[in-house]
Design goal:
Length: 465
């Protein structure tokens, strides 16, 4: 197994973000921390291929006078599909030439107001559509856990840098699993929050069903909890109760539904076994555990795919208006073009698909009347090897393989409920296999309390072990 990491005896050491904040308060110079992160990024980037845009000089300047906030002086990366002032937003595609953004987008403004210092932007799949960040020209983003395998989904670049020890926390977003999938693949914590929990850029707010959520990838539950605590000091949605300061396991014993059959696809026997082992762990802790069938019909797959395809059609059809004369659709990859075709051929079904996706929250509400938490595997099979989801393959092949792998995560995007992937399992080949916990709308605190409990019971394997 080929692993790469940047952990070293430098200013960052092996600290998580909260630990780094404590060290900075004790006098560790921010300039030393940022220089260490830059050195680490430069040392390992060639292996995972995680960097989309480098802003090291800007980070060094900001380190001399970091903006205020709990995370003041902590280095990070931003995924290359949100606007950061002075940086281009290329969205993982060669189909246009991006100009530097004139201002921070709404999410970046909130994210950076916590004090984080961006070192640049991380690579993603084209417009975030593929569950592997594999680029026709640049190649794949590989997991530092095993470089023969993908780093998982469109937030792969951020995940690779966090897992490899370059930074302790990085931005991710999730329209079908792209916070949770790379968390599962790289042995990280990844919480997709409740819909509307965090500030979002206008394009994402304007979707008919807002399936995309922004968030972070971290190596510890406390880092994720601290981020949401600090983020809601900057932005608070009036219809959602605050998460608050979650610092320890909860005391309540929960009703846990276990689902090992994905929507429309089954998981592998090994993944089912690993999921049931996690269920047994929860039961040994005193939680009530019950295995059930998926709470939504198999037709959900077709409806969600068509909605996903609609987003591709919108981006393809408005590309020249959005990006100007540099727009060149001939440079789009086969997955984006195939999704565009799928949407155009099924326009008559689109209103029904939108209604079904939007209505899935009613199914979720009935499910939550009986269960507090749902346990599933994050992914249906072990992480594919590089090339398995190549965007240069035929659309039908890519989509069939995608659906085999990503059979559990999209439901929470449709319902708007929170879900968290935790590194609770390892495959027979030594790859991380995340387990996913979902809860009702606004119940991030419940998930974080349960995550703390599981982290204490099963400490995560480290990449250095």
């Amino acid at each position: 197994m080929t692993r790469v990491h940047a952990f070293a005896d430098d200013a960052l050491q092996d600290l998580d973000a909260v630990g780094l904040v404590a060290a900075l308060h004790d006098g560790l110079p921010v300039t030393d921390v940022v220089d260490a992160a830059i050195a680490r990024a430069s040392a390992v980037n060639a292996d995972p291929g995680a960097m989309a845009y480098e802003a090291f000089d800007r980070a060094r300047d900001e380190a001399r006078k970091p903006r205020p906030g709990f995370f003041a002086g902590v280095p990070t990366f931003v995924k290359d599909n949100v606007d950061v002032e002075g940086m281009p937003t290329q969205q993982g595609t060669d189909a246009y030439v991006a100009r530097p953004a004139k201002r921070d987008g709404d999410f970046a403004r909130m994210f950076l107001a916590t004090g984080l210092i961006p070192l640049g932007k991380t690579q993603l799949s084209e417009f975030g559509f593929n569950a592997a960040a594999d680029h026709v020209r640049l190649g794949p983003v590989r997991t530092p856990r095993h470089t023969d395998h993908y780093a998982g989904a469109s937030s792969a670049g951020s995940a690779a840098f966090v897992a490899a020890g370059v930074v302790p926390i990085a931005h991710a977003n999730d329209g079908g699993g792209s916070i949770r999938i790379p968390a599962a693949v790289n042995g990280l914590v990844g919480l997709k929050p409740t819909r509307d929990r965090l500030a979002q850029d206008k394009m994402m707010r304007d979707m008919p069903v807002r399936i995309i959520s922004d968030g972070v990838l971290t190596r510890s539950v406390r880092d994720t909890a601290a981020f949401y605590r600090e983020a809601e000091k900057v932005f608070r949605h009036p219809r959602l109760a605050p998460i608050g300061n979650i610092t320890r396991p909860g005391r309540a014993r929960l009703r846990v539904a276990v689902v090992t059959r994905g929507v429309g696809r089954d998981c592998s026997p090994e993944v089912r076994e690993l999921t049931l082992k996690t269920a047994a762990l929860l039961e040994s802790m005193g939680h009530h555990v019950e295995e059930i069938d998926p709470p939504v019909p198999d037709s959900f797959v077709d409806d969600f795919l068509l909605y996903w395809a609609m987003m591709a059609m919108f981006l393809v059809r408005t590309g020249r208006r959005a990006h100007g004369p540099t727009w060149d659709p001939s440079k789009l990859d086969n997955l984006t073009l195939g999704l565009d075709r799928h949407a155009r051929r099924n326009l008559h079904r689109l209103p029904g698909a939108i209604a079904a996706i939007g209505g899935s929250k009613r199914l979720a509400a009935r499910h939550r009347s009986a269960y507090d938490v749902t346990l599933t595997p994050t992914l249906a099979t072990a992480t594919p090897t590089v090339g398995h989801l190549s965007p240069s393959a035929d659309y039908e092949q890519i989509m069939d393989r995608l659906l085999d792998w990503v059979a559990f995560t999209p439901l929470a995007n449709a319902t708007g409920e929170p879900a968290i992937s935790l590194p609770l399992a390892t495959t027979s080949t030594g790859l991380p296999q995340g387990m996913m916990l979902g809860a009702g709308r606004g119940r991030e605190a419940r998930l974080l309390e349960l995550a703390y409990e599981l982290e204490e019971a099963v400490p995560w394997p480290r990449i250095r072990d």
